[in-house]
Amino acid sequence: MVNTAVAVDWVMVRTETEALQLEYAWIKEFDPNFNVRYRDDKSYPYLALSTTEEFPRAYVYRGDKRKGNTYFGPYVQAWAIRDSLDHLLRVFPVRSCTSGVFRNAKAAGRPCLLAHIDRCSAPCVGKISAPDHRALVKEFMSFMSGNSKDIMADIANRMKSASETQDYEQASVLRDDLAALERVLEKSVVVLPDDTYADVVGLVHDDLQSAVQVFSVRGGRIVGQRGFIMENSVEATSESLMTDALMHIYATATKEEIPVEVLVSHEPESATSLADLLGVIREAQISVRVPARGDKRILMETVLANAGGALGIHKTKRSADLVTRSKALAEIQVALGLPDAPLRIECIDVSHISGTNVVASLVVFEDGIPRKKDYRQFIINDPRDDTASIAQVVTRRFKEHEELRPYRPNLLVIDGGLPQVNAAAKALELSGVGNMHVIGLAKRMEEIWRPGDAYPVILPRNSEALFMLQRVRDEAHRFAISLHRNRRSKGMVDSVLDDIPGLGPVKKKALLAHFGSLKKVAQANVAELATVAGIGPIQAEQIWQFLSESNSEETSINTATGEIIES
User: Fold this and answer.
1) Does domain 197-316 sit in CATH 3.30.420?
2) How far is CA 422 from the centre of its chain?
3) Which residues on neighbouring strands pair with residue 556, listed in sequence order?
4) Strands annotated E in 183-289
5) Is 557 within 8 Å of 563 (Cβ atoms)?
6) CA gap 346, 474 in Å, rounded
7) Within 446-536, where are the H helices?
8) How far apart are alpha carbons 224 and 467 in whole angstroms?
9) H or E segment to which residue 319 belongs
10) Which of 2-16, 182-196, 249-263 has the lowest mean pLDDT?
11) What is the CATH number of domain 496-557?
12) How many Å apart are CA 12 and CA 202, to the nearest integer?
């Protein structure tokens, strides 16, 4: 078996259920020699509704779909559908018996057992009219079509209420009902309707490269998957890249290889013309569109996840290759006129939102590989602008961090253009650091700036040197963003409740959990505040008084004139 294998590839999906169903479909399709499981002649089980009958019937079905019926699925296990259908009938007691049982009950004037245990509304004996029963069926279909949020929330609330009243037996029943409904909703997005004949094309790109993944869906099943990497042009956009990808995919395609529908992650340039071109080859009308909702949109997200993973793996392999890294460092040396290859590169990036929570990062690469133990993060004191922040970080790096001083970088990279790199060079001079090579990598055109230069250095878009510098810059950006998010999240947790005397973290948490938000806490009266666990009448009065005074101190604005009204 090992000797027979040529290559190993994989497809990413959202859940284990989808992985199982995709494996099942491909074993049926390709009939591999070494797979024993799932090599039977069974088809997927569906939940069916016989909507053409006067009183539609809900039942579990296998086999070819019949005209006039409505099907939901497919699903993994038939027993799970039957179990879930039993629980669904609690909420939607539609008919589920066969035609023979229905006729016998109608003739006898007595309903079957399902009616007595509240699993059927008994249309056979006239307990529900045909229009009312169809309305019930419509609700059933609405739930199965995805409008399940309200019903699931209702069951969850009933379960919570039963638990709070210590009716644990009822709570456990509702818990099981909820679990059964969740199993019903485990519909696969890797298996689409049988009439689906499409290619799903997803594209993920950075400034230099694009990863394209194509899922081929035939007869509602994914029968193939392929992908490739493209080099981007300087002025490339998502639309132009998608156009290039489609031209590459279908450049040599035959009539049989072009599907009826091409689903894309980004609208290509001249989508109509492209569809017409493909239509001429196929001799039929072709649709090229971006799926907006439903299973096709969810499948597109799966394709994009695979494209993103492929691009990441490609970049990792590229950066991990010793020969490639050596070539990149040599190209950087030549392009920048350095005396030696930059074996140690440090990069600084500043992160903020509108000048708030300003932080910076410093990352270190040695021999083209991240040296994470030398990474540093900085909180910027009294930030004025990006240039001042850059100067502050450079100064602190070479004056305060003694553990890094013995290992001076061969090249210091700044995330920014000429103003930022000039600020860094001046900070180095003031810090007494000489013979330090510093550059700036600007995002707009990926140009390289050196201190005092009138024109930037432009590296070829496909050069290993540019790829290396981009990777260093992106890692610094990622590291800075992580600190910025942490500080922003911490700031969001802080609120006016922190200023209330005698209100500790436990009571603060209880207030927010009870009311749901700080706004609703501020809108509550004393009696409502006193209902919170741990909050007595006296403290409730104090909280209400404090929040009332805080609200009264807020600035008022005349909406007619825009004038600030002083209190």
Assistant:
1) yes
2) 39
3) 565
4) 197-205, 209-218, 221-231, 261-264, 287-289
5) yes
6) 12
7) 464-493, 505-515, 518-523, 526-530
8) 31
9) helix 294-320
10) 182-196
11) 1.10.150.20
12) 13
Please state the rounded mean pLDDT for residues 24-35.
Answer: 67
Tokens of 564: 């600030």
With tokens 């099907």, the residue in question is: 71
Q: Which H/E stretch holds residue 550? A: helix 537-552
Cβ contact 529:503 at 8 Å: no
Residues 6+ apart with CB under 8 A from 350: 358, 359, 360, 380, 386, 389, 390, 393, 415, 480
Query: Between 291 and 550, whose confidence is greater?
Result: 291
CA 32, 202, 144 angle in degrees (round to 5)?
Answer: 75
Superfamily of domain 323-489: UvrC, RNAse H endonuclease domain (3.30.420.340)
Is 416 in contact with 440 (CB distance < 8 Å)? yes
- Indicate the SS3 state at residue 129: coil
**Positive or negative: CA dihedral 531, 532, 538, 542:** negative
pLDDT one-digit tens code per residue, 294-306: 888 888 988 998 8
User: Kind and range of the H or E element at 345?
Assistant: strand 344-353
The reported pLDDT for the residue numbered 484 is 60
Asked whether the beta carbons of 461 and 325 are under 8 A apart, the reply is no
Task: Decide if 197-316 and 323-489 have a common fold.
Answer: yes
- Give the C-alpha separation, 309 to 12, whole Å: 8
Sign of CA dihedral 215, 217, 218, 222: positive
CA separation for the pair 437, 448 (Å, rounded): 12
Query: What is the per-residue pLDDT across 189-234, written as a single tens digit (0 to 9) for each?
Result: 455 676 788 899 999 988 778 899 998 888 777 767 788 888 776 6
Burial grade of 374 (CB within 10 A; 0-12, 13-18, 19 or more): middle
Q: What are 492-531's pLDDT values in tens digits?
A: 444 567 768 778 878 888 888 888 777 788 888 888 888 8
Q: Which two tokens stand for residue 20?
A: 């199982």
What does the domain layout of the chain look like in residue ranges? 47-184, 197-316, 323-489, 496-557
The pTM is what?
0.45
